[in-house]
Specification:
With 363 residues, the chain is of the alpha+beta class. It has one domain. Helix content is 31%, strand content 25%. The protein contains ten helices and 13 strands. A six-stranded antiparallel beta sheet has the order 8-9-10-13-12-11. A hairpin with a 3-residue loop joins β8 and β9. α5 crosses α7 and α7 runs antiparallel to α8. The two termini are 24 Å apart.
């Protein structure tokens, strides 16, 4: 779940240092009790309201997406905001506005499974008990409330439409009720519609989002930004009348050059699991935690992309136009998201293009 939280909270398009790429492992490893069910330790269940909300939001994303990715064989898990903003100008919906909060916000995630069916997912999480969790999920009304009131849903064409889900995670605390994950399927209102003819654009947006995230997690930040926001005449069409449009093109070319340099510079990368290239971090925990009845003092985190994919991306980091119409081969490496765990070890893979590992050591 912590590996999934790290992936989901890694930004797609922002630049600069982002702790979300690995902070979940550092912050939350000591938040979970050794109990067989998911429960928070006393210290984390007594955090102030603001910090409890952040933890609840993160767990409220990680647990359901981990569960759904295994049940639905998801191979693309995409930020809803990025997905709509990437598609809107290409679909002629340049005036369509989205909100980051409230009933008009985009859903948290859009996900595609291995059969090409798309699912829309909104996530809620709380430590305040089953009653509050039920209120978060909402009611059909009228008027609709909570997650059911999600108005800015996304409708895919017939044959591509999967589930429209709202998940609610009620997180267990010491001496309280156990954790409970509830998933419902509300009807959308005021949807963002995608037609059959637009599905290639939808696939392109999803692939760029996933690859941008795994590039950033692997330490290739400039390449991640380039993949997420390539130079695109359609995307920049609204800026053609502005004075700085030529500057945008120039900056995009400079960014491509920096991405090529970054992807080719390997002195600060590690290679692991035979053919993955990325980065490795070692964290000494401020105090030991118990995992599988063993005291853990240190955590090793590895995140990397398949080496052949990195080599291919170096020659063409941004790829103008649709990825499906280019001659790239790395996209075939994308596939089902899978998580595995063993004694003091867990891994998360996306097809065979990305792998992250967490290793818990006693000393």
């Amino acid at each position: 779940m912590l590996l999934m939280i790290g992936y989901l909270t890694t930004p797609t398009t922002s630049t600069g240092v982002s702790l979300s790429e690995f902070w979940a492992w550092v912050r939350y490893l000591s938040a979970i009790t050794p109990d067989p069910d998911l429960r928070l330790t006393n210290s984390f269940s007594e955090l102030d309201a603001h910090q409890k909300t952040i933890l609840s939001d993160d767990f409220g994303m990680g647990a359901p997406l981990l569960w759904l990715s295994e049940r639905f064989d998801l191979d693309r898990i995409v930020d809803g905001q990025y997905f709509v903003e990437h598609l809107a100008p290409r679909l002629g919906a340049t005036q369509q506005r989205t909100a980051k909060r409230g009933p008009n916000k985009t859903p948290d995630f859009v996900a595609r499974d291995t059969t090409g069916v798309w699912h829309v997912i909104e996530c809620k999480g709380t430590q305040s008990g089953s009653g509050y969790s039920a209120r978060q999920l909402g009611d059909v009304g009228p008027p609709p409330s909570g997650g059911i009131a999600q108005k800015r849903s996304i409708i895919f064409p017939h044959g591509h439409t999967g589930q429209r889900l709202v998940s609610g995670l009620q997180i267990g605390v010491p001496n309280g009720a156990p954790s409970r994950l509830t998933i419902i399927d509300p009807a959308p209102e005021d949807p963002f519609r995608i037609n059959d003819s637009d599905m290639a654009l939808a696939d392109d947006a999803a692939t760029r989002c996933v690859v941008s995230k795994v590039l950033r997690q692997s330490g290739f930040e400039t390449a991640a930004e380039t993949m997420a926001s390539p130079h695109d005449d359609v995307f920049f069409k609204a800026r053609r009348a502005s004075k700085d449009f030529s500057g945008e093109i120039y900056e995009t070319k400079l960014r491509d050059e920096r991405a090529r340099e970054e992807l080719g510079r390997r002195e600060r990368t590690v290679q692991f699991a035979e053919n993955y290239v990325g980065r490795e971090r070692h964290f000494m925990l401020p105090r030991p935690v118990v995992v599988d009845e063993k005291q853990v003092h240190r955590v090793v985190l590895r995140q990397g992309i398949q080496k052949d994919a990195v080599d291919e991306m170096q020659s063409n980091p941004s790829i103008e136009g649709l990825l499906s119409e280019s001659d790239i081969s790395w996209a075939s490496g994308l596939g089902r998201s899978m998580s595995k765990s063993g004694k003091g070890f867990a891994s998360m893979t996306i097809g065979d293009i990305f792998r992250s590992e967490i290793i818990m050591e006693s000393s």
